[in-house]
């Protein structure tokens, strides 16, 4: 995974402009086995970042990397996910990104929570509801659940920033795969009041369930996007 991330950074920062180096060149550059390089290439291809041309190698998906308004569905980097974030990038984004916590609670899992997370009824879960603003405009409403036995500690201060970044560093949690369900949605009276917008305001709703390597769910979120300056990208490979 680390090799794939590093190659991805080189792609998005234009060190690799049109085509990846050959397998042998990547092996020499990273000092790893051929299988490791092939696994990294497979991850990038599955995300749609590169495309294989038979007999010619792997070419970079220019439509993806040159579009700043795209959210790469396979990514977990949040607001500006088609580009890996350097320290300078993160500082710039954080200045533009504001978070308002609407609710932070430790709950006991109800039937829906238990079925979604595959946990027992009554298991401790964190519930976070927050508004995200980008450039002072409403970006999204997030309703997020974390299984406490896998994410032992969260607080409101942590939830002001990137929760995923915190749990990756603190608990070494990495998302192995995810289920994502996308639909058009319309705000109900309760959410409209929170957002100070009309009832039935259209938005894009994504329900996402994130899994560890052992296929155990540790988190699920319901996110409603209200900005018009965004597109979603998902790469599909036919069987």
UniProtKB/TrEMBL annotation:
Pfam families per record: GntR, UTRA
Database matches in Gene3D superfamilies: Chorismate lyase-like, Winged helix-like DNA-binding domain superfamily/Winged helix DNA-binding domain
Keywords tagged on the record: DNA-binding, Transcription, Transcription regulation
Gene Ontology MF annotations: DNA binding; DNA-binding transcription factor activity
One of the protein's GO biological processes: negative regulation of DNA-templated transcription
Domain HTH gntR-type: 1-63
Family annotation (PROSITE patterns): HTH_GNTR
SMART domains referenced in this protein's UniProt entry, alphabetically: HTH_GNTR, UTRA
InterPro entries, sorted: Bact_HTH_transcr_reg, Chorismate_lyase_/UTRA_dom_sf, Tscrpt_reg_HTH_GntR, UTRA, WH-like_DNA-bd_sf, WH_DNA-bd_sf
Record protein name field: GntR family transcriptional regulator
Source organism: Lactobacillus jensenii
């Amino acid at each position: 995974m680390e090799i794939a991330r590093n190659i991805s950074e080189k792609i998005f920062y234009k060190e690799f402009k049109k085509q990846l180096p050959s397998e042998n060149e990547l092996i020499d550059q990273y000092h790893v086995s051929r299988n490791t390089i092939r696994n990294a290439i497979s991850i990038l291809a599955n995300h749609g970042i590169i495309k294989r041309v038979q007999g010619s190698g792997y070419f970079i998906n220019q439509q993806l990397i040159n579009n700043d308004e795209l959210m790469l569905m396979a990514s977990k980097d949040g607001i500006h996910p088609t580009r890996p974030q350097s320290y300078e990038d993160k500082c710039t984004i954080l200045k533009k990104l504001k978070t308002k916590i609407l609710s932070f609670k430790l709950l006991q899992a109800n039937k829906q929570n238990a079925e979604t997370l595959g946990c027992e009824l009554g298991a401790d879960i964190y519930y976070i509801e927050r508004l995200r603003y980008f450039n002072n405009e409403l970006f999204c409403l997030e309703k997020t659940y974390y299984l406490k036995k896998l994410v032992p500690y969260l607080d409101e201060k942590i939830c002001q920033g990137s929760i995923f970044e915190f749990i990756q560093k603190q608990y070494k949690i990495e998302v192995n795969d995810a289920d994502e369900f996308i639909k058009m949605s319309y705000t109900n009276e309760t959410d409209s009041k929170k957002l100070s917008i009309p009832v039935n305001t259209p938005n894009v709703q994504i329900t996402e369930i994130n899994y560890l390597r052992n296929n155990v769910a540790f988190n699920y979120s319901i996110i409603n996007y209200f900005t018009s300056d965004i597109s979603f990208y998902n790469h599909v490979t036919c069987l």
